[in-house]
Amino acid sequence: MTFFHSITWRLARWFGACLLVAMLLAEIVVYVSVEHALRQTAWRELQAEVTAVVARLREADDGRHEPRGLTDADLFPPDAGMFFQLTTAAGTTLNRSTGGPPLPWRPTKAGDTALFASRGGRLVYVSMPVPIPPNSGYLSVATAWAPFADYLRTLRVVLEVVGLLAVACGAAGGVLISRSALRPVEEISREVRRLGPESLGARLPVQGPADELHRLRETFNDLLVRIEAARRRQTEFIADASHELRTPVAIIEGYVTLLLRWGWNEPTVLAESLDVIARESRWLARLVADLLTVTRLDSEPAGAQLPVDLAAIGREVVADARPLAPGLEITEAYQPVPEVLGDRGRLRQLLFILLDNAIKYTPAGGTIALTLAPAGNWVQLTIHDTGVGIDPAALPHVFERFYRADQARARTGGSGLGLAIARGITGVHGGMIDIRSARGEGTTVEVRLPVRRRDPGT
Question: Which domain holds residue 254?
Fold first, then answer.
């Protein structure tokens, strides 16, 4: 990674840009403030000259009301830096400084000056009403703006140089600060790169203040814990699947070997061997199908999310299961419930797994009750049987893959994946599944699925 593609460069660039904008705003404020101060200074100087001229006019008033009798030297001080002009209210020039340019005579704003361009350069002036017997007129006083302009030009150059230096220093400081702030991130990157598949048990050291980097280390350690747990579950799953597959394969291999040696000539042995091979093949096919289902539930979402009538599915599954439960009483009770959104095939599989489990572990003469009822924003499906029950110590593990509570449940030849599949199907539909049981008291399985939310106006 090059420097110009790094976070350090981006942070320094943004820091420099923000500092540049701030410096420009500051320079504008300083320049405008100084210019205003200079114009105020000029106004005070010009106002003082206006006061002096007005005083001379009053001294010259002898009651004859003839200000035109006064010469320029009488009215205006011999100051080469100032220009004066006395004008009537109608705009007629009465007196003007010798050699001075014509000045604007309309009054300026109180307390402010104005600029205008003359042949000799820009001038700053004020024009104020003054008493000119027998009426009134205007006195305009101007001075050259060049000294003020030179000062402002110098100020602007100084501000630009200082601003550029400040931005350059700020950008360099931003690089140093960014590198210092991101150094712990680089250390974390180096530590993470040292981790491999064989060192998932390692953890990043968590120390220092509880800042963002501290939380980053904790978050990454939590991720390592989850990855390690997932890999452990994967390893256990592969080991368990291998163990479960090994038994039927070994049985089939043994009977095939028996047939190849001498069993073909013994009808009884041949029939028994073929029967065992067929039974183990069916069990193996079911186990492989269950393994594929578990894998798909882990890696794929539910199928098409369509409105599903759980009561209709319940009636279908019970009708299919009755031939598998001779000697058992299966009852159904369906209250009116809203539809749920889900994959109809998988929901049917979920119900069949639960009902099949109840049939397997309920002795002849027992009962199985299936009920469907609303529960707030949920639809609750309950299957209760009067079977052998489950030991309380085994309940926390019944949803684990390949788990069998005891030999009583292992005798049925189940793959140990049924309840794991049931929990997976419930989970991908946003639902919950719970089992309550006790040895000799039967088992109750409750499944809750969220009801279908209808859009307004449908």
Answer: 212-297
Compute the Cα dihedral for 211, 212, 218, 221 and give only its sign.
negative
- Two structure tokens written together for 382: 């309950």
* Distance of alpha carbon 27 from alpha carbon 43, whole angstroms: 24
Question: Which residue numbers in the chain have pLDDT < 70?
Answer: 1-5, 59-80, 110-113, 119-120, 132-135, 197-200, 208, 243, 263, 298-304, 404-415, 453-458
The answer to the question of residue 199 being in a domain is no
Q: Give the pTM.
A: 0.52
One domain for residues 399 and 273: no
DSSP state of 4: G
Residue with tokens 């010009």: 46
Residue type, 267: P
Query: In residues, how long is the chain?
Result: 458
Is the domain of 76 the same as that of 220? no
Beta bridge mates, 413: none
The pLDDT score that the predictor gives to residue 215 is: 80
Listed residue (454, 455, 431, 450) closest to 354, CA to CA: 431
**What is the C-alpha to C-alpha distance for residues 36 and 59, in angstroms, rounded to an integer?**
35
CA distance 349 to 426: 11
Closest CA to 430 of 446, 449, 451: 449
Claim to verify: residue 12 and residue 152 sit in the same structural domain: yes
Give the model's pLDDT for residue 330: 92
What pLDDT does residue 133 have? 61
What pLDDT score does 90 carry? 79
Q: Is residue 248 part of a domain?
A: yes
The amino acid at 2:
T
Are β-strands 443-450 and 432-437 bridged in parallel, bridged antiparallel, or unpaired?
Answer: antiparallel
When the pLDDT of each residue in the chain is averaged and rounded to a whole number, the result is 79
Residue in 452, 427, 296, 321 with CA at minimum distance from that of residue 374: 452
One-letter identity of residue 145: W
CATH of the domain at 254: 1.10.287.130
| Tokens of residue 294, six digits | 């578990």
Phi/psi class of residue 403: alpha, beta or left (left: φ > 0; alpha: ψ in -120 to 50)? beta
DSSP strands (E only) in 237-284: none
Query: Are 53 and 80 part of one and the same domain?
Result: yes
Which CATH number covers residue 330?
Answer: 3.30.565.10
Residue at 353 is within a domain:
yes
Query: Is there a domain that residue 119 lies in?
Result: yes
| pLDDT tens per residue, range 345-383 | 889 989 998 998 899 888 988 999 999 999 989 999 999
